[in-house]
Amino acid sequence: MKLVISAVCSIVLCAIPALAQSKAAKDAGMSDQEFLNFAAQTDMVEANLGQLAETVSDSQPVKDYAQMLVTDHTGDYKQLYNLAVQANLNLPHAIDAEHNKAIGPFYKLKGKAFDHRYIQEMIAGHTKAIEIYKKEAQDAQNATVRAYAAQAVATLEKHLDGAKALEKPMP
In terms of CATH, what superfamily is 31-167? Predict the structure, then answer.
């Protein structure tokens, strides 16, 4: 019995530094691969929801905003693809299950109900993305990834401002 307890204690003591290292790595931010995955999923989701908005929204300003997102995020995905090749990283080619689940409810909405949820999601999503991109612009391991993240912030801020403007009542 003492041998079993000693073995368990030894394993636990050996595992503590590994657990601390993984927590430190997590606190340090994303890896470049994780960031590219995030950015690609964001681009695909924004383009997908933008296409949906163009068909189910009753508001021309929302449709115009959605078209801007489709154009910008489709172009950004192409830029990300080139960046991934250059940095020898992988890029997802389809929306993953987690993001598909998140956008699923949008397909049940139309008109003003869609517009309200879409605008709120665009504000929340772009706010989160700006925070992540700014951090990656400082912390990315690859200089090209850092430069991409830094230059993309302006576009994301434009999208956030556009969503906030749609939130305000029309005159």
Answer: Ferritin, core subunit, four-helix bundle (1.20.1260.10)
